[in-house]
Design goal:
By secondary structure, the chain is mostly helical. It is 80% helix and 4% strand. The longest helix has 33 residues, at 2-34. The chain is globular. The N and C termini lie far apart (64 Å). It is found in: Membrane.
Length: 238
């Protein structure tokens, strides 16, 4: 029994690390949406969004046989096989591209236009939570199918999901605060979401972009922005 448990420990830790990395996308999206709400409602949206992501992933694990079937071909167009998973990824990717592009335009153009309508005035908690749920579904399906491909023990998957969501809940507050306090990083985060949306669309079309390339590019861009921020701050104080 001890031997079996130790044999599952490495896959469990590996899966947790992978799920946390994949969960960063979710945290960034929720943090940007939460910033559109009054301060007293932002934590509520983060906790609800991440909590519902856990419920959704646990529910998907409960119907694991159906999830596995999402990789089966439904139809073929121009030589491209379309599965349930690819359709979900395509829809989620296009939604993410639309949201990121809209927010970038709002930050880059409308914020400086005194006559522009207040886009944030029309939003409410339930509307933003609905958008979070759409991305929760996309990321959850991708996450669970990834987990199924890595391990074949159900309790390992359940444990990884619960631990990952706990880490996301702890990390969401400082990440959200940092993005909110640094406008340049908010634009960078939106560009990250735009790139993630494009990668989801590519994956939905069976054009696999290695996740390592995407996260390396994100880390490099983040480092450049940190260096630029430090340089500007130093110049301002000199």
């Amino acid at each position: 029994m001890d031997l079996d448990l130790s044999a599952q420990l490495v896959p469990l830790l590996t899966l947790i690390v992978l799920e946390v990395i994949l969960g960063i996308d979710n945290i960034i999206f929720i943090s940007i949406l939460a910033d559109k709400l009054p301060v007293e409602q932002r934590d509520r949206l983060r906790y609800w969004g991440i909590g519902l992501a856990m419920v959704m992933r646990l529910a998907l694990l409960a119907v694991i046989a159906w999830i596995i079937q999402l990789d089966q071909t439904l139809f073929v167009v121009a030589g491209v096989d379309f599965t349930g998973k690819s359709l979900i990824l395509l829809a989620g990717g296009l939604f993410l591209i639309y949201k990121a592009t809209k927010e970038i335009y709002h930050k880059a153009e409308l914020d400086n236009d005194a006559n522009a309508p207040d886009v944030g005035a029309a939003v409410n908690f339930n509307a933003l939570l609905g958008q979070v749920l759409i991305l929760d579904l996309v990321f959850s399906v991708d996450s669970i199918i990834t987990a199924v491909g890595m391990v074949d023990t159900l309790w390992v998957m359940y444990t990884a999901v619960v631990v990952t969501v706990g880490i996301m809940l702890v990390a969401s507050k400082p990440i959200s605060t940092f993005i909110s306090q640094h406008p340049s990083f908010k634009i960078l985060a939106l560009c990250f979401l735009l790139m993630i949306g494009m990668s989801l669309v590519a994956e939905g079309m069976h054009f696999k972009i290695p996740k390592g390339y995407i996260y390396f590019a994100m880390a490099f861009a983040f480092l450049v922005d940190v260096i630029q921020m430090k340089t500007v701050h130093k110049s301002a104080n000199s």
